[in-house]
Amino acid sequence: MVAATSVQNAYIGDDARPRLAPFIEELAAVESTAWDAFILRQPNATLYHLHAWRTIAQRAYGLDAPFLVARDAPGGVLRGVLPVFRIPRPFAPYLTNGLFGSYGDVLADDPHYARALVSAAMQRIDRGEADYLHLKVLTDAPSSALERNDVWVTARLALGPNEEATWQNLASAMRTKIRHARKADLVATRDGDVDGFYDVLSENMLRKGSPIYGLRFFRRLVEELGLRANVITLRQNGRVVSGALVAWLNDVMYVPFASSRPAVFPLKANQLLWWEIARYAHALGLGTLDFGSSMRESSGLEFKKLWRTRVEPIGSYLYARPGVRPVLVPAGSAVARFTVNAWSHLPPTWAEALGPRVARWIA
Fold first, then answer.
1. Helices (DSSP H) in 209-345: which residue ranges?
2. What does the alpha-carbon distance between residue 112 and residue 123 come to, in Å, rounded to a whole number?
3. Is the N or C terminus of the chain more exposed, i.e. has fewer CB atoms within 10 Å?
4. How many CB atoms lie within 10 A of CB 349?
5. What is the pLDDT of residues 141-150, one digit of tens each?
6. Res. 26: pLDDT tops 50
7. What is the DSSP letter of 248?
8. At what angle do helices 194-208 and 334-344 cross, to 10 degrees?
9. CB–CB of 153/280 below 8 Å?
10. How far is 209 from 206, CA to CA, in rounded Å?
11. pTM of the prediction?
12. H-type alpha helices, the chain
């Protein structure tokens, strides 16, 4: 752990009121409970703020995760938190507050602490710990020194007071597709079958030329989230053909990962899967279904809009070392196209072995 510091206001916006600088340090391992207790008190907290993500990153990928906390003085109560992960991308390491599309605001009792936390993260870039900082948040950045990019959005569905109300709020075309899937003998279960779901996801990621996260990552994720997580699957003749890893915090159901085999696309398996997720959210008494992050203008986002969701921008706020130009969406490059094509032709056993090693570079 690096030495704790009192962060100066060098990077704090012009609206910052002069006051004693907060005490900023990395969260000690023994304070994980205090971290989560603070998260649960914050109205803007998301599932991705939980301390479980630090444990997962460290144990599944060996990532450095210097979760930052703000206090009034050493040993004081937590006044603000900022999860930070160091992604060791070759030739371009970076710091971020979320893994694999996750996002979350800087949480603090007062903007003064939020600005200090961001300042501390930026100082790590100045010291050369990484090339740039990438914060993914739903609100405005707490520092004017960060450059905003609009690449991703999230889509959220406000659930009705009961399952029937949500069903009636769907477009008639969506209800027809869900009925079609039900007639295809697709059986939905909330069975926690991580391995079955992973088999579907890994098949799709290989087909798309994307490195797979590794079964160990998903097992760790479900284990660490505990009673906040489950896996929903659809089976056809006993075989898992579609599934989603779901988790919840406060009033929101999150879906970090979902996938269906291409062979069951004509059966409208995706539509039934997401309806089963909505039904599960109702069973848990939740009020919102978060469909997860998508790139703007993507086909995935168009699918989510069909559920009459509310689309919210996820701001990508960047701070880089002089001369560094962060690349957030490299898919358009010739190198990226070559890599995707080559990866999609790997034998499944090779992709499974190499995927987790590569995934830790692109989190």
1. 215-225, 269-283, 299-305, 334-344
2. 17
3. N
4. 8
5. 778 899 999 9
6. yes
7. E
8. 130
9. no
10. 5
11. 0.89
12. 32-40, 52-61, 111-126, 163-169, 172-183, 194-208, 215-225, 269-283, 299-305, 334-344, 348-359
